[in-house]
Amino acid sequence: MAAFPDIPKVQFEGPQSDNPLAFRWYDPEEMIEGKSMKDHLRFTICYWHTFRGTGSDPFGGGTMLRPWDDGSDSVENACNRARVAFEFFEKLGAPYYAFHDRDVAPEGDSLATTNSNFESVAAVLKEEQQRTGIKLLWGTANMFSHPRYMHGAATTCNADVFAYCAAQVKKALEVTNDLGGENYVFWGGREGYQNLYNTDMKRELDHLAQFFHMAVDYAREIGFKGQFLIEPKPKEPTKHQYDSDAAACLNFLRAYDLMDHFKLNIETNHATLAGHTMMHELEYAGMQGGLGSIDANTGDLMLGWDTDQFPTDYYLTTQIMLVLLKYGLSPGGVNFDAKVRRESFEPLDLFYAHIGGMDAFAKGLKIAAAIRADDALGGFVSSRYASFDGGIGKQIESGAVGFQELEAYMLEKGDVTPNQSGRQEMLENVVNRYIDKF
Ligand code: XLS
Ligand code: NI
Ligand code: NI
Predict the structure, then answer these.
(1) Could you read off the pLDDT of 166-185 as tens digits, one per residue?
(2) Is the dihedral of CA 49, 176, 326, 284 positive or negative?
(3) Which of 68, 116, 270, 402 could be a cystine partner for 3, CB 3.0 to 4.6 Å?
(4) Is the beta carbon of 49 within 6 A of some atom in ligand 1?
């Protein structure tokens, strides 16, 4: 039985369309910079918000109407939900999906039962992948919801919990591998601490690194070729999250000799909670070869938590696409780690939300490509640093001079060549001009 009988497959109708169930900008086959929109964006639907989100908040229970879901924790319900999820992905034309182990299958009363539940649902996911051609962008393990993880997972003070989460990731890696997952993500849910009075931070970080090395070793053992990703996030749920932003993650990866095996999965709302823009986090990771994938959403500037709203802002998507076009995204993708508001409780709202997000990214891609085609920002940036292309600047960059030579140079010159304007406002107007074009 179809779960969305009244909703046709969402089609591209162009910017003039006023059909709320059509794409106005996302035309999967449109070629941009020699590649189709579909291949640039690699849109991914996340299972947790879209199929497990209830709409609950700290002040009240769930609101979502999900007629296909019987609300039980049975494996049968989970398998049925998986089929509905693929119907949704297909109607939306999304080429990828992503999940946590516990989103797709229920925990049982022992690890063995939990594993077999997961295998049963994974068999349905595999069947549905084969039927539809929709692929798994990434798998991950939920190591934060269950009370056993109250002190963290790989950074716990309880060695048994460390063992448990190792077993959990082992299984999640096997399933991800079996489903052809192109990446494997670690978001360090409770990997952090509240208070140093009870925490051995050095020991916890050493354990986390050991854990990641074990994952790399096991991936090699089972022939998993996907990319490992760490997802930076500050503040939630612990006060001091170890993976608080791109800089903290990259420093950790370098300190523990993991740079060859990991990249980052950057999320907008996490970037802003860390006091950065998304563009900053992407560029910071990208310039160090560490940009792997993105979780596409947006926060609310008035609120200080991870509200995971759908991204609809063209400035945001233009900025993101400017960086993604520069560094590339594959084998990562644009994963909508976003949830409908609890007041948007009907299944139809899931379609509107994703259509809006996909269109915003498609338009951002077009704007960013047009900016790049005219070198409308890049040209300014390179000319801004032109003093390093020759003369003393070139000698600085090549390492030919040190403090002695630079002092001699300046003593002879007397003072610096006058500075030139940074033209920030003019460049903001340029971006507006390109947004106006579409
Ligand atoms: C939570 C994270 C989470 C990860 C996957 O804030 O965004 O959803 O993407 O564990
Ligand atoms: Ni995320
Ligand atoms: Ni998040």
Answers:
(1) 999 999 999 999 999 999 99
(2) positive
(3) 68
(4) no
